[in-house]
């Protein structure tokens, strides 16, 4: 085929072929580029396959020949024609060749030469492109061949490798076969051992059979013994029951006789015990004189060493602080222990807190707090106790009165859940919705005072105030009107088996228990029986009231607006009223009665007492005047118009909320000087989980872990370092002095205590206080009669009756103002 290529073209192609051959050999040599080249070669082969049938030289030449033939044919036809004409036509005389013809022929020749050149050029181009394509195809085939060669050599290697593996495998198999044969042969040597093992196994099986037999025998013996024991126990139990009944009957008779005798001669026995104790004290004084000087040289106990940074009372060598506590806080002194603490505090030069050591009677002592920052540390949330320190163990004495599951004594999450459920019922907005109830009950209260004023009777205001607060709290809590203010004594709920009587007697019984150690009262079986009886009566009555209420509620679902629902109904909303839940709720109602009834009644008594001071004290007359002016401005001019105004929708919330600042100040000041309740918490003993706790007392870091902390509001509220030199003076104006208030330390005023466990009913108590003040200030005059107070002053003091209550029930005479 190359023979057809013109020599110049052929030399070009040769050159190209050589250079591409070099390139291909270069590519084959380069191992790293192998893959790329293989890919390239593949492409090239593919392009070669895809090529259209090449345009051969033969074809081109034939085409050219045709062209030249046709042109030649054209000229030869002309020649032929010419010949024909020459042959057929008589000869024409020869035309002489003119120079124009020569020039024309020359031109014709030149044109033909040009055509030829053109044809040759295109032949050359076609030749070159065909050579290139052929070249590519050639090298593609070359590359494929080399790939095939390398595949064949790889297959060869693989075959060699598998042959080698096969021979190794054969060797290994033979070796393993030999080893296995050897092992099988050597197994025969263990036959004697196997025999012995078999013998042993059969012996063991024999032994197991015998053991099983023995076990069976033992089991039957055990069953016989058990049956015998059971019969014996039954006999013993029957004998014990008979004996117990005999002893209980004997003891019952004996106790009855003793209790009747004690009840009859209670005073006489008490006097005799007093006499004995007097003589013992006399004897102790003699021993004192001898032992006291020696005891001062002895090392103090570890407990005293631990608390040595806390100011403490002088100690008796045998009774520690008990002797002085006995003198200052003696229940027979007829005053609240706070008065005793005040004397001790003064003796100690009014420290921030001091310790009352109860050893040897009680290993846990009290820290009496007179300064707000320490009180705050006991009641505000801490790292370890997120709802503040736990309540003092001494509060367990309240259980019969408030129930075992009371919100007052509950701790941690149990308390949190209760508080969450009941909070909504005590929210100010909800209480304002219920204010018409409070107003209508207060109307009865005012009416009772007006009636007493008309007769001129001297009445313990406590009776009226307690009936009022009882009616309000029962109505608000369970929507039950016990008509405490209307029922005459001895009838219905106030009869000997009435729920109101039960509540009152129970609190008196518990109070007596908390008044100190009363040996006669402590062993008094009549007191214990009474406590059990009234607790049962109280609980059952409340349970049945609650059950009825909830049933009624279920019968008329969604009929009532939530805003006027009772506190308990709100707390039980969406809960299944199981007996367990009802009993738990009974405990909460008892707690509200206990916590909200006496305390608020006490506040009302002190409010009226502070009003009564205007009778003889010019300073208090000024205060009364300011109150009257405020009420005239807010409630209109009528002496008893306030309740009418407050009853109008929305008025109670608006007027009592912000329109009577002086009355609010008057109530705050009353609660400052006459706080009805307090709190006692416990600081757990230091151990692995509770680190030691210290507070700053008079510049010293004093350990207090293991102590009961008593936030003594009486001392905190009268501390001159906080309230100034007139701390003991009743002065409502201090609450309107913004500068003074801004300088008070946090927690200085704490009648409702502070922190997460503060009083849930404080808004209710304040609302009741304001309604009572609005109702009585302008129309009634209070006159304190009877008790002339401490140190000959015309004063009244508090006594402990679980909470702090006025000593004489606040006996008063009432007057209608002209
Ligand atoms: C002037 C009237 C009141 C005073 C001075 C007062 C005072 C207090 C104080 C000092 C505490 C804290 C007790 C403690 O930490 O151990 C307390 C707790 C409590 N108060 Fe009042 N309270 C009054 C009225 C009420 C009323 C009207 C109710 C409800 C009906 C009420 C229900 C409670 C309850 C349930 C607690 C326990 C709260 C708890 O631990 O979450 N209180 N109150």
Automatic annotation (TrEMBL):
Cofactor(s) this protein requires: heme
Compositionally biased tracts (Basic and acidic residues): 59-72, 95-124
Pfam families membership: p450
List of residues binding heme: 759
Coiled coil: 197-231
Location of region: Disordered: 1-124
Extent of Basic residues compositional bias: 16-41
Biased composition (Polar residues): 77-86
Gene3D superfamilies: Cytochrome P450 (1.10.630.10)
Keywords: Coiled coil, Heme, Iron, Membrane, Metal-binding, Transmembrane, Transmembrane helix
UniProt KW Iron keyword: yes
Transmembrane feature ranges: 245-263
GO molecular function: heme binding; iron ion binding; monooxygenase activity; oxidoreductase activity, acting on paired donors, with incorporation or reduction of molecular oxygen
Tagged with keyword Coiled coil: yes
Listed PANTHER family: CYTOCHROME P450, CYTOCHROME P450 MONOOXYGENASE STCS
Record's protein name: Cytochrome P450
Record organism: Saxophila tyrrhenica
Organism lineage string: Eukaryota, Fungi, Dikarya, Ascomycota, Pezizomycotina
